[in-house]
Amino acid sequence: MAFLVAVLLSFIPALCYAAIVYWLDRFEKEPARLLFGAFAWGAVVATIGAIIWTSVLQLGVGALVGNEAFADLAGTTLLAPIVEETLKGLAVAIIFIAFPYEFDSVLDGIVYGAITALGFAATENVLYLYFLGYQEGGYSSMVALFVLRVLLGGWGHAVYTAFTGIGLAVGRLRRGPGNRLIFPLLGLMTAIFLHGLHNTMATLLGASLGLAGLGATLVVDWLGWGVALGVVVWAILRERRWMTAYLREEVALGTISAAQYATACSLGGQMGARIRGRAARQFYATCAELAQKKHQLAKLGEESGNSARVAMLRERLAQLAPAA
User: Which DSSP state fits 100?
Assistant: First the structure.
C-alpha cells in the first residue's frame, strides 16, 4: 500500500507539471506520441540507466581514491548530474535526429527536455518517497519528502534538461555544421552545471546548516526557474512574432482570411479555436507550422525541401479552411 501511495504522490504531480508544459506550447503542439515516448524514456530508461552507471562510476572512484566518503560525495555532486543529464538528454537527441522537423523552435526543445525530465523525476521520487521516506520514518517522512521534492522542488529536473533541449533547438536553427555540435554541448553542459549546483548546495549546506541550508538551496533553484520561465515567455512571444510576420503574406495570397489571420496570431484566439473542435485545432496548428517553416526557409534555405513543405502546408490549409 505504501509503495502505491509513493507512486501516486510522484506520478500524479509529474503528469500535472507535464500538462502545464504542454499548455505552454501555445501555437504548434508537439505530437503526443513523441511526448509520451519522451516521458516514458525518462521514467524507465534514463532512471534505470542512471542507477546502474552512477553506481558503477562511484565504485570506480572509490576504488581509485580509496575513500568511500569522497566517492559518495563525488557520486552525488558530480557523477549523478553528468550521468542523469546525459541519459535524459539522449531522449531529446534521439527525437532531434529522428524527427528534425519537429524541432521548429527553442520552445520545442524546452518542451521535449522538460517532459523527458518529468518522467525521470516521477520514478526517482517514487524511490525516494518509499525507500528513504516510508521505510525509514513511515508516512510522516514520506509526506515530508513529498513536500520537499515534489512540491517545493518539483521543477528542478525539468529546468535542467530544458537547457539541453534549448541547445539542440538553437543548433538546429543556425547555419553551419559546427553549430549543431557546439550549441547542444553548451546546452548539456548548462544542464549538468545547474544539476550539480543544486546537488552540491543541498548536500553541503543541508549537512552544515540543516533546514536553513535546504532553504537557501531552494531559493537558488527558484531563481533559476524564474530565468527559465523568462526564456519560455520570450520563446512564446518570438513564435507569435513569426506568426504575425509570415502569415501576413498568406492573407494576400488568399490562403487564409483576415479573420483567420487575427485568430492565428492571438494567444486568446488560439485557445478559443482549440475549444471549437478538432478541425479548428488542426487548421490553426497548421498555420503555426507554416509560419515556422517559412521562417526556416528564410533563415536556413531549402534544407532538404523547405519550399516543398511550405507548399504542402498551404494546400493543407486550403483543405481545412472551410471547416475552421
Answer: G
Give average pLDDT by consecutive 10-residue segment, the chain, 324 residues: 96 97 87 96 97 95 90 94 98 92 88 98 97 93 95 96 96 80 95 96 84 88 94 92 93 90 85 78 90 88 82 90 70
Domain that holds residue 19: 2-237
d(CA 61, CA 290): 51
Assess whether 227 and 275 both reside in one domain: no
Same domain, 168 and 209: yes
Contacts of 298 (CB under 8 A, 6+ apart): none
Pull the grid cell for residue 149: 521534492
Phi first, then psi, for residue 304 (nearest 5°) are 60, 40
Rg (CA), the chain: 22
**DSSP type of residue 113:** H
Query: What is the pLDDT at residue 155?
Result: 96
Q: How far is residue 239's CA from residue 104's CA, in Å, rounded to a whole number?
A: 10
- What confidence score (pLDDT) does residue 324 get? 66
- Residue 47: phi and psi, rounded to 5, are -65, -50
55, containing H or E segment: helix 47-65
Domain boundary among 237, 262, 281: 237
Q: How many CA atoms does the CB half-sphere of 142 hold within 13 Å?
A: 19
Set of cell numbers at residue 125: 521520487
Whether 113 and 203 map to the same domain: the answer is yes
Last residue of a domain, one of 176, 205, 237: 237
Q: Residue 248, Cα to own-chain centre: how many angstroms?
A: 31
Give the Å distances, CA to CA, from 209 to 62, 77, 137, 183, 194: 27, 17, 22, 37, 21
